[in-house]
Design brief:
The structure is a single chain. The chain is of the alpha+beta class and 470 residues long. The protein contains twelve helices and 17 strands. The strands form five sheets. Strands 12-13-14-15-16-17 form a six-stranded antiparallel beta barrel. It is elongated.
Length: 470
């Protein structure tokens, strides 16, 4: 039993079939229910429990259909287009879904029809064969109560007052008369049930535009089986991308296990590609992380990010030298797959004065810089993300440090060059300029230091370290 507070009372919100046989029902006060059944087990009903449960079941049902959606407070809609034949036809397909849900403890009914409204009506109110033949919705819906059309409560009451409790009593009546007496919603619902009007569906998991599915007749438990499934999906997806002149930048390989859990690995590429062998090599690095457990029954390959592929890729996978070399792109992809996305970076110059703002990161090898790298002044091979303060001993006003302490280590200056003055970008923020020095210590280490502002009688400027030379 589930219970919730209703004003100053605690009432039953849901009752199991066994409890209902004992005379308990939703809306009944829990104290009265316990008086009838002292051993009653009551669990607090938390807000949104039904929605979360349905969404979880909807995600689980993706193994049977790519699109699933919540239908009211007690139902799911699956778009089974093109799926039933994988289970040997509509009847074994529907039986398998219901059997699997009942096996995990759910009381469930199901139906299949050309329209979502008709399928929902048969599942909830039907008593005959649950699979409706094509274009046979009207005859099947006829014996059902008007509530099966999911009308507004006022419309349902009006129909019952007129003695039209069953759908067959008004489905063939003149539309003008129905509109005048009962409103446009009734006609719209009838049109939806009969397939004359569109029905909206909001998928629980949006379907990627570029995705391929591979159901398995028997659960896959071996590394070899997983590799075969991945290779087949890559060939299908890459063939489609190649025909459309596109390539993927990111891809996700998912495996839905028999126990309801999902295994997932993802890759990314530096350039849009539809080369299946190259993509398989990227996935292969991470295949060992997939744990099949009792077996995987459905594989899905998705490409969330797709771009136009360079025309050269449709004819040659060897490339030329430089950034256009496809071998370089393949190497970078493998390194990223092995060491992680944060291991490799590409930077392009920006027309900015402040050193930490004079470049930006790029993830596309095809992107060209808008300006050239400055080469008139030496720059450190490693620039700190933010300048770090140091302690210095330096003659004033414009001499380099004789000594400086960084992270507790004292460095004695052997050689120095500078200063190089870099003014602050006044249109961005205000503040003092920087005087940069290239400094070499006694051990041969070379550093990029700067003084922020001038020495004044009442102020000693702060010194910072900003980078390291090779």
């Amino acid at each position: 039993m589930l219970s919730a507070k209703d004003h100053n009372r605690v009432v039953i919100t849901a009752a199991s079939p066994e409890a209902e046989k004992e005379g308990l029902f939703p809306g009944m006060v829990v104290a009265d229910a316990r008086a009838l059944l002292p051993e009653l087990i009551v669990v607090e009903d938390k807000a949104g429990r039904e929605t979360r449960l349905l969404r979880g079941l909807g995600e689980w049902s993706i193994r049977f259909a790519p699109i699933s959606a919540v239908d009211g407070l007690d139902g799911l809609i699956l778009d089974a287009s093109g799926c039933a034949h994988l289970w040997g036809g509509e009847e074994p397909y529907l039986k398998e879904i219901l059997k699997r849900l009942r096996a995990i403890g759910y009381h469930v009914r199901g139906a299949m029809a050309d329209t979502m409204l008709a399928a929902g009506a048969i599942a909830r109110y039907g008593k005959g064969y649950p699979i409706i033949a094509k274009d046979n919705q009207a005859a099947t819906l006829g014996p059902l109560p008007c509530q099966a059309l999911r009308l507004e409560e006022a419309t349902t009451e009006r129909l019952q007052q007129l003695g039209l409790a069953r759908i067959h009593q008004f489905i063939s009546m003149p539309r003008g008369a129905l509109r005048r007496r009962l409103g446009a919603q009734l006609l719209h619902r009838l049109d939806q049930a009969l397939g004359h009007a569109e029905e909206s569906l909001e998928p629980i998991c949006p379907v990627e535009a570029y995705a391929e599915r591979l159901p398995c007749l028997e659960p896959i438990q071996t590394r070899t089986g997983i590799e075969i499934a991945l290779q087949r999906l890559l060939n299908q997806l890459c063939g489609r991308l190649q025909q459309e002149g596109k390539g993927l930048r990111t891809a996700v390989f998912k495996g839905y296990r028999v126990d309801g859990k999902m295994e997932s690995i993802g890759i990314s590429t530096t350039r849009a590609t539809h080369q299946a062998n190259h993509l398989f090599a990227l996935f292969e690095i991470r295949l060992a992380t997939i744990e099949p457990a009792l077996g995987i029954e459905l594989f899905i390959l998705e490409a969330p990010k797709v771009e136009d592929a360079a025309p050269a890729q449709t004819t040659l996978w060897s490339g030329s030298a430089g950034l256009e070399d496809n071998g370089l792109a393949a190497l970078l992809d493998r390194l990223v797959g092995k060491f992680g996305a944060g291991a490799i970076h590409r930077y392009l110059p920006e027309e900015r004065y402040w050193p930490e703002r004079s470049f930006r990161e790029s993830t596309d090898l095809r992107e060209t810089p808008s300006t050239a790298w400055p080469t008139d002044r030496p720059r450190p091979i490693q620039l700190l993300p933010h300048p770090e303060p140091i302690q210095v001993t330096a003659p004033i006003p414009d001499y380099p440090p004789m000594l400086f302490r960084y992270k507790g280590v004292l460095h004695k200056t052997a050689k120095a060059d500078g200063p190089e003055r870099i003014e602050r970008e006044w249109w961005t923020d205000a503040g003092p300029h920087r005087d940069y020095y290239t400094v070499e210590d006694e051990s041969g280490g070379r550093y990029w230091l700067f003084r922020s502002g001038h020495y004044r009688d009442d102020h000693s400027p702060q010194w910072f370290i900003h980078g390291f030379f090779a």
